[in-house]
């Protein structure tokens, strides 16, 4: 299944290095091929996304060198 | 400090289960109202408090029922899989006694499970979780 956020993830990856230089550990709000902004808090970034774009898919992602996976000791994902 | 306590017949067998409601975020609710769109009703689900879960998880069909779209994508690692991409959604968790927590939840199939939601440490970080096995009770305080 193709991700609904494929374009946004590519945009983030294309800009990851630049974002690391100015917004490490902040949250990037990405829509289409645009980095819309960076925010200190994840929920602030999401709320801004709702206000700007409405109820459509957009990407809020922590700016780090590598993605850190979420860990679960039980498996509900298969 | 708002709290609730639940007693079950056999907490060892069932785990700490609680009936909650899931709702859309307040900001999205305002946006939908401004657009003249219908606000989806909160959805009742059975949830388990899971201290082994980094994040809250919802069964994947619940996002469709609530009519919400993904606001992120996270990688998930479990004992049997690694770096599985999962959508993230902003939700409101409505616990008993009027306790409300907003958080981002990831969606998963949760196939064959009697529960539709895991309450993870992203929610527990705001409160106190007390599991008393010999009385088959647990409490959550915020």
Question: Which key phrases capture this entry?
Answer:
heterodimer; A: 78 residues; alpha+beta; 3-stranded antiparallel beta sheet; 2 helices; 4 strands; 22% strand; globular; B: 142 residues; Cathepsin D, subunit A, domain 1; 6-stranded mixed barrel; 17% helix
As laid out across the biggest beta sheet of chain A, the strand order is 2-1-3
Multimerization state: heterodimer
At the first level of CATH, the class of chain B is Mainly Beta
Question: In angstroms, what separates the terminal alpha carbons of chain B?
Answer: 6 Å
Please state how the strands of the largest beta sheet of chain B are arranged side by side: 2-3-8-4-7-6
Spatial shape of chain A: globular
Helix count of chain B?
A: 4
Question: Share of helix among residues of chain B?
Answer: 10-25%
CATH names the topology of chain B as: Cathepsin D, subunit A, domain 1
Report the average pLDDT across residues of chain A: 94
Q: What is the total domain count of chain B?
A: 1
Write down the Rg of chain B: 15 Å
> What is the CA–CA distance across the termini of chain A?
15 Å
Helix content of chain A: 25-40%
Shape of chain B: globular
Structural class of chain A: alpha+beta
The total strand number of chain B stands at 10
Instruction: Write down the secondary-structure element order of chain B.
Output: EHEHEEHEEEEHEE
Overall description:
Chain A is α+β, with helices and mostly antiparallel strands. Chain A has one domain. Chain A contains 2 helices and 4 strands. Chain A has helices at 6-23, 42-53; strands at 27-31, 34-39, 59-62, 70-71. In chain A, a hairpin with a 2-residue loop joins strand 1 and strand 2. The longest helix of chain A has 18 residues, at 6-23. The mean pLDDT of chain A is 94. By secondary structure, chain B is an alpha+beta fold. Chain B has one domain (3-141): Acid Proteases (Cathepsin D, subunit A, domain 1). In chain B, the strands form 2 sheets. Chain B has a 6-stranded mixed beta barrel with strand order 2-3-8-4-7-6. In chain B, strands 1-10-9 form a 3-stranded antiparallel sheet, with no helix packed on it. In chain B, a hairpin with a 5-residue loop joins strand 6 (81-94) and strand 7. The longest helix of chain B is centred in the first third of the chain and has 9 residues, at 26-34. Chain B is globular. Chain B starts with a strand and ends with a strand. The mean pLDDT of chain B is 95. The A-B interface holds A 3-5, 9, 42-43, 46-47, 49-51, 54-61, 67-78 and B 25, 27-28, 31-32, 35, 37, 50, 52-55, 57, 67-88, 90, 102, 104, 106, 108-111, 113, 118. Strand 4 of chain A pairs parallel with strand 5 (72-78) of chain B, so a sheet runs across the interface.
